[in-house]
Amino acid sequence: MGIVVIGAVFVDIKGYPLSTYIPGGRNAGRMEQVHGGVSRNVAEDIANVELRPTFVSLVDDSGMGQDVIDKLENHKVNTRFIKKVPDGMGTWLAIFDNRGDVTAAISKRPDTTPLIDLLAEQGDEIFADCDAIALELDLESVHFESSNGTIMGKFEVENTPGEVFSGRFDITGFGNEFTVVVADYACNETVIDAFLNLGDHTGGDTGPVALDSSRIYGCETYDAAAVEGGWFSANKTDLSDARNETFDSANRYYSAEYVNGYLIAQNAGTGSLELVTPSGTYWKTKTLVAQSGKVGENGVWVLYDMAMDYSDTRTALLDPWDSASGTDFLLAVGWAYKGDNNNDGKDDGYNALYKIWTSKWNNQVFVDEIGPITGENGSSEILCLGITTEGSIYGIGTNGCLYALELNTAGNGAETVLIGETDFVNYPGFGGANVIQSMGYDHNTDTMYWFAHSQVPQGAVYVNINVTYTVNLETAACTEVGTYGPGGQTCLFIPNSIESDLFQMGINATGFSLEPYSTTMVQNQTRQIKVAWQPWNAQANGVMWSTSNESIAVVDANGFVTAVSEGDAVITATGQVWDPYHWDNETGTTVPTWVDYSSECKIKVVKAEDALYGFVVEDFSNIGNRFTWFTYADKTPTAITSLGKPMVTYYDPTSGENVTANALWQGGAYYNGYVYTVMVQARTAPDGTFGGASVLYRSPVTKGAVPAETVIGEPEEIGYTIGIEVGNIGFDYNTGRMYGVDLTNGGLCIVDLETGSIDPLGTFSGDIGGPAIATAMCVTAEGMIVIADMSSTLYSVDADTLSTTRLGSASGDSWFYAGMTYDYNTGNIYWNPCMNKGLSPLYLVTLGPDEWEPDRTTATIIDMGDVSTKAGVEQTVIFTIPDNEPETQIIPVESITITNGESAVGLAGGTLQLNVVTEPLRPTNQVKTWVSSDEEVVVVDRFGKLTFMGIGTATVTVTTRNKNDDTLYTDSIEITVLEAAGEFKAFLNLDQGGTSYYDFWIHGNDYDLRHMLVDKSMISVYSLRSGVYYDGYYYAFNDKGAFLRIDENDLSAYTTIGTANIDTYNDQITALAMDHAAGTLYGLTLHHTYEYSTDQAVQCPASLVTVDLNTGSVNVIAQLDFNRPVYALACDAQGQLYAAGSPSNDSSQTVIYTVDKVTGEYEEFMTIAGAGVFTGNNYYGNMQYNSQMAYDYGTNRLYLNATYSTQGLKYASGVVMIQLGEEPYSVNLGGISLYTREGSSIKYGEAFLGLMAFIPDESELPQSTVNGILLNKTSARTYVGGTAQLEARVRPSNAADTSVTWTSADESIAVVDENGLVTGAAVGSTVITVTSNQTGVSAQCTVEIVEQPGASSVAYTVSANRDALIAFNPALPAQTAITIAEFSGGSMIKGLAYGDNFLFYVVESGASYQLYRYDILTRQSVSLGGLEAWTGINDIAYDPDNELLYAVGGFYMFQYNTATLQAGGTNYMSGYIMDSDYCTMVGVAVKDGAVYAMGNDWATSVPKLIRYSDKYLTDRTVVMSGVGVNVYAGATEMAYDATTDLFYITDASNNIYSMTDTGETHFVDILGSGIDINGLAINSTPSYSVRYTDGVDGEVIFADQQYFAQEGSHTPNFNGTPMRAGYSFAGWTPEVAEFVTENVVYTATWTINDYTITFDARGGEVSPAEITVTYGQPVGTLPVPTREGFDFIGWFDENGTRYTDETVYLVDGNITLNARWSMTAYTVTFVDSLNNNAVIGTLTVGRGDVIDSGEFPVAPEHQGYVFCGWDYDGEPVMNDMTVSTVYHLLGDVDMDGCISGIDALMVLRKAMGIIELTENQCRLADVDFNGEVTVNDAVRILRHALGIELLG
Length: 1848
What we know:
The longest helix is centred in the first third of the chain and has 13 residues, at 114-126. By secondary structure, the protein is mainly β. The protein is built from eight helices and 139 strands. The strands form 35 sheets. It has an eight-stranded mixed beta sheet with strand order 20-21-22-23-27-26-25-24. Strands 107, 108, 109, 127, 128, 129 and 130 form a seven-stranded mixed beta sheet that branches. Strands 49, 50, 51, 52 and 53 form a five-stranded antiparallel beta sheet that branches.
């Protein structure tokens, strides 16, 4: 028997007193800690009876958790499925008294949700051998929910797990239809639907219950609420006792007011004005005034706050026609939406005052706008409203100020008067008041309460500040009552007993209607028809019910209808109503009386489906139901049965492993025994790219005897397609097609069931309004495709045209994936849209003729309830299994054609998508096979996408076949691949129909025009219309005729050189072309005259012109042929001009002409079909876009971006490549598209360019002469004795002679050297000229020489290039700039502002902006936290008087209170404004409390200086439009100098300008070569410069330290101690003064040091042992040590450096030198002792060495002798020595010098084995040389001894 126990683990901590327990006192005692938890205890008990249970649970990831596991394992419990997680165990803390009773306890429950994943992942294994399950269920609460999901009551319960629970609950007012939800602590829910017949009480309304006037009431509008959302109350003096009044967090309200015991409130979800009836925990609502539009649409109103006016003082103004039911009026403040009528992207509405009143004629409630709110609140909206009992009206604005309001005398608006700034403004983190707040007047105590709320974004979330105040209405002072909740509160009210005549309840009913008036039901379904009495405040009466056909539907006395069988029936209710105008025929007058009245409801009964199957992605109540197949019946969708969780296994290219995970179906459909499903997964395409793919799966479906027994098998992958996301799918038996919704393109597609390939059909059109996201779809038996969009609207779709026709709508939006199916068993459509929890009903849809238009099909949509629970599910697949599945019809293939033509040309490295069509257009089989004849030339993937690999020609073939036979159909295309030119740069005027980007620099490759990359935005900076690249710069005309020079490497660094001398209102330069060989810039002008009264243009002949590169002026060469207009121009390497235009403006072709540069005559060169080149006339000075043509030197080609551009019509024909040479030809490469980010899809638009350039290599360019000189500045300033560095660059840079000559017009004022260094000689002004030595062209700079500066302001900036903080005199920047500290990360600094000896600076960090404070004296930075900003930040400024920091970015200026900065998080803005002219703000500065901003006008790109008069940012003035500086976001910095009353601003070229407060500018200078400017701040206090320098030329001893100090202040000290190697610091010259009186440089003085060298002889002897040396001088004569047996090598220091007599001493200190020795060498001589000691060889060895055996030479042989070794005994060699050979006579075995019988005897004994001989003796004994000692040797030796025989 296998028992599985599932539940939680607790640790019980118990405390027991040692003596009498004292409640509330301190008790000594003992503590006990034991493992607990009901399920853990049960598992242990089962184990104790030897049943070996499995325990499934969670424990802490700690030692305590391991203890629990260890103990259970000791009891033989299977703990394999206990998971360690943080906070996995609960804790129970209990205090016991002396009797052992619990006196107090606290329980912390564990988070058991990880159990769901554990069971989902390992459930099969856990329950494989399970016979019984013990499940712990710990109930938390019982909820009662209404039919729409509203929580009507919530009751906490206590139960003992394992025991039956019962309880009684008061459900008064809940009605007869509700849901009981039993929830446990794991957030799982058990749902019970209740449908009660309450007889006479059915549908009865209860009146309001009196509320407590000692409490303050409101509504929480956030999911994260202080209590549990909905209506709440708290003690007016203590918010800590806050409690829920209701639990309805779904219905949220903008505003409300308490009237006659009811609430009048505006529902935030529907926008309707509702009557809310407080009663128990379920406050019923009734709609009084509905709004048909949505927020933001014209005519819609949003009421921020409401207040009752009981004073009767404004009746004449509020009710001039005496139409109201009384004299009381409900007033409200809000926003009146008026739509965007001027197309500026903003709503034209305004902050308005409203009145809510009831008509005395028909009791109808009206919401009428009184008029706009104006006055002292300025641009600050009034958000809150409160009215005293006496009728005084008050409001609070977004700026946190309190205002008095009063209706104007005309009664058509309200005026405000400022009372004061509330204390909320100074609350930490205040970022402006938010609309989610409320005021309310307590008529019982004459006190105004305020729910104050400020909300500021922090990253992706918002931080809310919520404070409740009482408000002093005379001073605006606030007294804090408390803080409340994590989110804002609305609808503040305090109950009162004042009776109002605004409305009266319980009047006689004048009519009624039935809800619904018609409906569809399924067989055996019961629902109640309800009676709605009119008017809204009528008393309900009784009615009688009847049915027209009891065989179809029956009804009981309480309106409960039960569907019996298919068909139509009418249910009728009959009752009596009051007719105040009843005509009495007898009297001939009207006599009020009760009359009979009836109303009908049409009932349609359809078949029921008991076997719906669905896949649930999310169950909003039960997390365990995620990713599960279920089955249920349509009439009881909450009764679901699980059919299992599908799992998918796939290869994950990221991890490189197979991954198994829950399936996440996005859609699915049943067909032929399978359910086909799609999901998005990351996959690798055949070309190696990686991206999201729609993957098609199928799972076998085996139908069971009952739905719960149906088996859905494991999913099998069929195939996938990358780049298209498919949502829901539906099968059409009429065509054999599986249709799908194409979420990528907003249309339909066909999914091939064999391969998973996707065929997009296009985008939707018709009633749906264009490309749209369809969340669900199905196909009916008749082949009608039905889709649902995100607004819950159903459409039919024509499969051929994708035109849509509206069928009907459900309520609310539905943005989530949704399931939909057509049921062949009933003919019903089932649809489960989803928006979130509680917003996902299951709909039954029937299609039929419209009641009023029978020829039009309409959808009847019936809410069948929610799946699983009232919270609903996100169900992405719904299907049924047909009882009789239709036969599938097949559409055969007849032919296939590649539509790209018979041939195509591509560039190596590029791609091309081949397109095919079949006949018929879309047969059932969609599978195609692609093959390339040569994959070294072109490769083709399975989708027909070509990749051009190498130069050559190949054939690509496509093949398809019929589905039911093997007939093949093919087509081919010949592909030619050419060399690519590669990268080019372009200025994008507009990406029309694509990304809609405009005024951007882009770059890309000619072989891949569809993936052009974005470089830099120039929006509001410049917009080019024609241009060229030349020698490191782009030269271009903008849309205003200005001639610009733009740095190729810094596109924001540009100079306006001049303006074209043409009438730019009517004329423009359409094209530019650079002749590099001649150094001449050519252009084309276009001239039109336009008669605006008749809207007619007269085109005049174009002209060929030259353009002066230095001024932009044009010189006409010739007028061109009027009949052959041209608009684009280019020049090749030989200087030949080419022009392009469409003859007679025929957009179907373009002619390329060669143009004579002298006469302007041209000849036709080539005609290009299918490309139009035309530029229309200027329209009110607005220049049209131009075609661009560029030449590429590397390939000798022209590239033409062919466009047609007029005021009313613009289109592009693509980029045409024109190959020049002997056999010219052209190829259209296609259009340009932007690839904006990695992984994004390409939007194909039409690109209009203002410039196009292929940047040539210098080696490709012809060498020409100098035609211009560019100076780094054309005006400069320095002081007498000071210098200014001028830098000249000759143009072109590849000229043969680039040398120049510098001259000064007046050397008495300034002189210049050969390198352009100007030195001031006297006060005055002169001109410096630089002249080319090659051609004589020149450039000039005006130099102003001023007096040496005294005390001045100090400017600061950060140089990223130098990683330094730079300080300088802003009037003389280049002469005074000095690094005062190291400072890294300058490129990320987005603003600098000066405080009191500190700098604020902002650093861009990812998507956030961090604020820092830098102390100028200590050189330390401190983080002040992040800055809230919903745009980028370009600059900052500081207002010390008001302690405010300003930041600008985009169209916005943000304000921050520096007194409340919080270093640990985000600092939220205290205010902000958006510029009313849409200026892109790039710089900001503060002058005397006024805030000045520099910005570019969004529409005109004109720079503006804007002034806001004070910190409230309400009084705005444009000081100057057209400021003479090129400003750019991120490059322009701005600061104010109070000393000179000047602003200083910079441009993208790091030029510095001064500017008056009227906008007049003057160029000052640059800081210096290579010094960039990041942030600009100015200390305006006149200061002197104090600099400390090392005084050493050509060497940096220490970095200069520079300080700025006011006159008379103490001289700043040098930071640290001056240190210099080899020297001692001797002081400063001049001597440092005590006080600062002038600019001063203190130079360090030094004395040279002497040091001692000590000698270590290392075993030898040396004298002297030490010497004295001078730093920087040669050391002199060094002693020579001695050591016996060693040779001295030299003296070395510890680093191994050798010292000689000439070594210069550069060590800062004493050192020791060590002697290094080599041992003395000796010679060993080897001699031959038998040859007069003749030398055999020599050997050199070191002292003490031993001669190795291998070092001896070979000894000579001597006849009759045997060599026996050397006379060397192995002693160490200590001097030269001789070693002799040792020989013995052959046979002289005893080595005594003679051969005797003794020798023979020794040999004989050896031969006999009696003795052993040495090796040498054996050699002497072997006289016969056979290698052995034998008896024969002994005999021969004896014979020799006897003289008989000679040996050897």
